[in-house]
Amino acid sequence: MKLARGDQETRELRRARRLVAGEIAVVITLLVFVSGVIAFAVLIGGQRAEADRTLAWTIRQGLTVPPPGCVWLFSGGGHTPLGEPPAGMPVTEIFARVPADGDVVTETRELGGVVYTIRTENRGGIISQAFFEQVYQLQDRYSLLTGFAIAEALALVASVLTGYLLAGRVIRPLGEALRRQRTFVADASHELRAPLTRLHTRAQLLSRRARGSELPPRVVAEVDQLVGGTRELGEVVDDLLLSARLRAEAPRMEPVELGELAEQAVAAEAVRAEQRNVRISVSADGGAYVVPGVPTALRRVLSALLDNAIGHTPPGGTIEVTLGVPDDRHVELSVRDTGVGFEQRDAARLFERFARGHDGDGRRFGLGLALVREVVTGHGGTIAARGTPGAGATFTLRFLRAVP
């Protein structure tokens, strides 16, 4: 198993490309649909006007003039054309609705399985009723709807493809800019790492010499602050370098024992926790907690979580790392502290880059927890944060178990 090539930014670019393509497709499809609706409405209006004109002309001409094709006329007890009229003609119940001279009623009815436009008119006391068969009009409507359905489908396919290609051309420069940014971050972090390590080492030596000298306590404290500052700067550079590596060629995954990493991380932070009078421990049931992952990345995750917990736990508090197997497919690791906690509504904001907390020692500038989420999601896992102001916080990681 490998980390997916393409980090969160790459996935966001792909998602943006799909969204742009989808929006273009929706707009074009809606335009074609609206055009079809307008054309269909114009067709129906024209057909109705044509039928009404034809029926009015037929009634005016009377029985002496043969009506156009598909038209029947009943007037004064006779009808035209001659021959047996279709079943249901005339519709005498409509006669009562045109009692006065000049009254006209037009409606659509189905008679014997055929749809007709019926015009009933009172002319000089004589009621005439003309029928216009809509069979050809309905065929025209069906043909138009079929054509528009085909055009809509073709427009949808063409707009999706065109939108996807255009969105790719638009987003490509942004992707290149992000790639160059990641390359710069990786190169700058790599070049800064060695001199920062030397600077931190010399600061530590200077601190030890200052403690054994007769320098004023204020100077010794400032040297200690210098050591802490160089260490923090080194951690930020490590975070940037790890983030850049995870965005590059996907590293090879291997089975990682989370229990061992937890023990190592706790041991590495034991001295600092003791200096702050904070008790730190690991709790596990002795089982196997093997997950597929990158050891260096997961070690940095645990280090960042413990660093965050120590920085926000006051003297006399406790930090507990707990491992468990909630089901047959997953492994969970929780880091719980009795520190200052946080409002639960702020849980999502904790993982934003450079989001800084309002409590604790304020050493971290949010890059650590942002990187934690990035690494965890890159491993196919999840991370959840729960906290209560003044009652501590708990960060829970869940990973898929490694296949034996």
Description:
One of its GO terms (molecular function) is kinase activity. Its EC number is 2.7.13.3. It is found in: Cell membrane. There is one protein chain. This protein is of the alpha+beta class and 404 residues long. It has two domains: 1-177, no CATH class; 252-400, Histidine kinase-like ATPase, C-terminal domain (Heat Shock Protein 90), CATH 3.30.565.10. It has helices at 8-61, 135-211, 217-247, 258-275, 295-311, 367-378, and strands at residues 71-75, 78-80, 104-111, 114-123, 126-133, 254-257, 279-283, 290-293, 318-324, 330-337, 382-387, 393-400. The chain is rod-shaped. The relative contact order is 0.09. Mean pLDDT is 82; it is low at 1-6 and 360-366.
List keywords for this structure.
single chain; 404 residues; alpha+beta; Heat Shock Protein 90; 5-stranded mixed beta sheet; 6 helices; disordered N terminus; nucleotide-binding; membrane
